[in-house]
């Protein structure tokens, strides 16, 4: 069985790829919804704007038994890590297929001038010993939390909104940040120091706009609520409502710049977001979020809003020089 590159996958290959994802999902119970064939096709055919994707698979006759996708954001040679996802059909595991696909991806990373790669996996699954055996180290634990909106009493949101911190005003927008707030939003994003350091690329107004454009080109809606202090952003929260979400929205970034912390700015902007979504997107039933496992403040804010922990995932990273 050879590793093949699927630079322009055919319909049959996309269906075969989907069968691998479906078999992996059936065997590894996870909180994520089961993959659907259209979602797989979109994933394989449409790399996000600003990113490229490379695909490899191991074929056994006409079937695929293992697949790997490598996402490369930014230009070749930038210091952003590539993102790898390897999936091996449960009956074909422990035969070195995962290792061979990772080796193919390592070549792809080298060819693109990358110096590191990351992978996000569920805690307690075979992915952990697999990645650790291949030179990866855990750089972040993420706690996956879910808020079911019908379990949030409206009076909780109203109370949190009424407890506005003194001296702050709310501002909100849909899509790309208004020009007057772009630089301040980038500064506030930079306040997520642990993530910024780990992603290796600084936030600036250009990257903030680029991220919003990526969401819009996917057909998804980005909502931002920010707290202004003296006309500049002190904290903000972002939600993305995917066009095909079936009622599930995703929490994107939330941050409060250091000098404004400890004044309940974070929970206030999140409560304002819940009130806005209730009016604007009544179809949204729940919101999912991943929090850094050591971000006790953000987890406490989310628990106070009503989020509950669903799963723990881990971000693994490897330097290219450590890969096989
Ligand atoms: C993680 C996964 C890709 C591994 O694929 P695989 O083809 O079984 O892995 P390999 O056979 O290449 O294993 C290479 C080494 O990883 C380690 N390893 C892999 N699976 C392991 C397990 N279940 N327990 C302990 N060690 C394991 C071993 O050291 C193994 O070498 P060995 O078999 O010589 O001991 C596969 O289990 C899978 O598809 N999981 C679900 C999807 C997923 O979580 N993907 C995220 C990874 S980016």
From TrEMBL:
The keyword Transferase applies. PANTHER family: ACETYLTRANSFERASE (PTHR43877:SF1), AMINOALKYLPHOSPHONATE N-ACETYLTRANSFERASE-RELATED-RELATED (PTHR43877). It comes from the Bacteria. Keywords: Acyltransferase, Transferase. The keyword Transferase applies. Pfam families: Acetyltransf_1. This is GNAT family N-acetyltransferase. Residues 12-159, 183-324 form the N-acetyltransferase domain.
């Amino acid at each position: 069985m050879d590793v093949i590159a699927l630079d322009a996958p055919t319909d049959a290959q996309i269906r075969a790829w989907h069968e691998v994802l479906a078999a992996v999902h059936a065997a590894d119970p996870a909180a994520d919804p089961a993959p659907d064939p259209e979602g797989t096709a979109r994933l394989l055919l449409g790399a996000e704007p600003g990113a490229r994707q490379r695909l490899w698979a191991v074929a056994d006759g006409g079937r695929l038994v293992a697949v790997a996708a490598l996402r490369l954001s930014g230009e070749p040679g930038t210091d952003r890590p590539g993102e790898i996802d390897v999936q091996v059909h449960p009956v074909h595991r422990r035969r070195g297929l995962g290792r061979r696909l990772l080796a193919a991806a390592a070549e792809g990373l080298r060819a693109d001038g990358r110096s590191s790669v990351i992978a996000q996996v569920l805690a307690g699954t075979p992915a952990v010993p697999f990645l650790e055996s291949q030179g990866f180290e855990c750089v972040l634990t993420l706690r996956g939390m879910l808020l079911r909106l019908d379990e949030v009493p409206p009076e909780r949101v109203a109370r949190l909104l009424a407890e506005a911190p003194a001296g702050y005003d709310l501002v909100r927008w849909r899509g790309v940040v208004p020009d007057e707030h772009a630089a301040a939003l980038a500064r506030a994003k930079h306040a997520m120091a642990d993530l910024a350091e780990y992603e290796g690329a600084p936030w600036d107004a250009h990257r903030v706009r680029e991220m919003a454009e990526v969401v819009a080109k996917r057909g998804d809606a980005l909502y931002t609520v920010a707290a202004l202090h003296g006309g500049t952003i002190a904290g903000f929260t972002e939600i993305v409502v995917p066009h095909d979400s079936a009622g599930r929205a995703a929490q994107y970034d939330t941050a409060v710049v250091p000098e404004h912390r400890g004044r309940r700015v974070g929970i206030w902007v999140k409560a304002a977001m819940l009130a806005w979504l209730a009016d604007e997107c009544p179809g949204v039933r729940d919101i999912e979020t991943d929090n850094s496992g050591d971000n006790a403040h953000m987890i406490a804010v989310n628990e106070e809003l009503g989020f509950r922990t669903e799963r723990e995932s881990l971000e693994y990273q490897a330097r290219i020089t450590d890969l096989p």
